[in-house]
Amino acid sequence: MRVLLVGLLGIVGLHVSGVELSTFVSAAQPIPAVVLNVLVAEGLEHPVYVTHAGDGSSRLFVVEQPGRIRIVKEGRLSASSFLDITDRVRHAGEQGLLGLAFHPAYAKNGRFFVNYVRRSDGATVIAEFRASSNPNVAQPNEKQLLTVAQPYPNHKGGMVEFGPDGFLYIALGDGGSAGDPGNRGQNRNELLGKLLRIDVDQGAPYAIPKDNPFAAGGGRPEIFAYGLRNPWRFSFDRQTGELWAADVGQNEWEEIDIVKRGGNYGWRVMEGDHCFLPRDGCARDSLISPVAEYGHDKGRCSITGGYVYRGSRLPALRGAYLYGDFCSGEIFSLAGGRQQLLLKTSLEIASFGQDQDGELYVVGHGGTIHRLVEARH
After folding, report:
1. Which residues are CB-neighbours of 76 under 8 A, at least 6 positions away?
2. Could you write out the three-class secondary structure of the chain?
3. Phi, psi of 358 (to 5 degrees)
4. Does 233 sit behind a cis peptide bond, omega within 30 degrees of 0 on the bond before it?
5. SS3 letters for 106-132?
6. Which of 198, 214, 284, 299 has the fewest beta carbons under 10 Å from its own?
7. pLDDT tens, residue by residue, 96-149
8. How far apart are CA 310 and CA 126, in angstroms?
9. What pLDDT score does 138 carry?
10. Which residues of 48-81 are buried (b: 16+ CB within 10 A; e: fewer)?
11. 369 CB contacts (<8 Å, ≥6 apart)?
12. How far apart are CA 291 and CA 256, in angstroms?
């Protein structure tokens, strides 16, 4: 996100620290599958995410930035909210209700988790809620698991998601402003600029997984990976379990990372695979390069992370990572070391999402949800 969030193209193959950055394929290259946006819902207020509950209900849950979660069932948007916490949420610029994750056993325990910016002081809150006896309405009372003070109003991260290990992963941006003035991304005693991992089934209010990289010292025990600027959206490959994160850049480069436990992804030393501070001769030996990057040209300015496609409707894209750009409205694929333009839309692409079958959806910040399908000629 650049208000909501806020680089792409023109890169050539590079080798840095043993990592080959992907290349963009020219328009003359064959497109693996032509896709269209099919409208699923409209009339939403600044939607920023869509997901499912894993309960077999075929419902989609849409996060509205002002502080509501709405349900879409069989193409119909519910008139009322599943959850409404607008009275607690600060909605301005990059702030708001930003993330939603359902517990892997939600069908039995009704637990789900959100990431929001608190109205009173601008802090990030990770909170647990529960469904009520009505499956389409949640209980309004919350259990706060974690609060993180925020020095500036931008770079919140916002994603929360359960990994295949059953732990809750939390993305936090570097705290905002520009250039990470507090160098929080590299400070392992700070939670900002990190990807966190906690156990919400143990402890009070949570426990630290024993194999977290700093569980025994050397940094905050919640940290799973660090050196991130604004990891607005991340996801797990449903087949391999790999963690893919798109990190929004500063003024020049957007990046895609495969995140490993304990990894340092470079910010603010690096922006993408380029020295940021200092501009020349930065020390990068301990840093993990992105698997792909793109620059700020052709109207591109803010990467929106997506998913490795594992559905059935787009067989030619199976195994490709799909993502977009908030500013240009373009949707891309990354596969076999090649980034490729799939579709140009008029949307401000705030997020991608997937249903229980692994089919992909695109969230337009202007108020719409779309499904990706094959074009019919």
Report:
1. none
2. CCCCCCCCCCCCCEEECCEEECEECCCCCCCCCCEEEEEEECCCCCEEEEECCCCCCCEEEEEECCCEEEEEECCEECCCCCEECCCCECCECCECEEEEEECCCHHHHCEEEEEEEECCCCCEEEEEEEECCCCCCECCCCEEEEEECCCCCCCCCCCEEECCCCCEEEEECCCCCCCCCCCCCCCCCCCCCEEEEEECCCCCCCECCCCCCCCCCCCCCCEEEECCCCCCEEEECCCCCCEEEEECCCCCEEEEEEECCCCECCCCCEECCEECCCCCCCCCCCCCCCCEEEECCCCCCCEEEEEECCCCCCHHHCCCEEEEECCCCEEEEEECCEEEEEEECCCCEEEEEECCCCCEEEEECCCEEEEEEECCC
3. 85, 10
4. no
5. HHHHCEEEEEEEECCCCCEEEEEEEEC
6. 299
7. 999 999 999 999 999 999 999 999 999 999 999 999 999 999 999 999 999 999
8. 29
9. 98
10. bbbbbbebeeebbbbbbbbbbbbbbeeeebbeeb
11. 39, 40, 41, 42, 44, 47, 50, 60, 62, 72, 353, 361, 362, 363
12. 6
Domains and CATH numbers, the chain: 14-374 (2.120.10.30)
Neighbours of 337 (CB within 10 A): 13
Q: CA 349, CA 310: separation in Å to the nearest integer?
A: 21
Distance between CA atoms of residues 272 and 218, nearest Å: 26
* 128: amino acid identity, one letter: E
CA 331 to chain centre: 15
Q: Band of the pLDDT at 35, cuts 50, 70, 90?
A: confident
d(CA 156, CA 148): 10
Q: Kindly give, in sequence order, each residue whose CB lies less than 8 Å from that of residue 23, ignoring residues fewer than 6 positions away.
A: 11, 12, 13, 337, 338, 339
Tokens for 30, please give them. Answer: 């064959």
Q: Residue 115: beta bridge partners?
A: 99, 126
CB burial readout 151-170, b (16+ within 10 A) else e = ebbbbbbbbbbbbeeebbbb
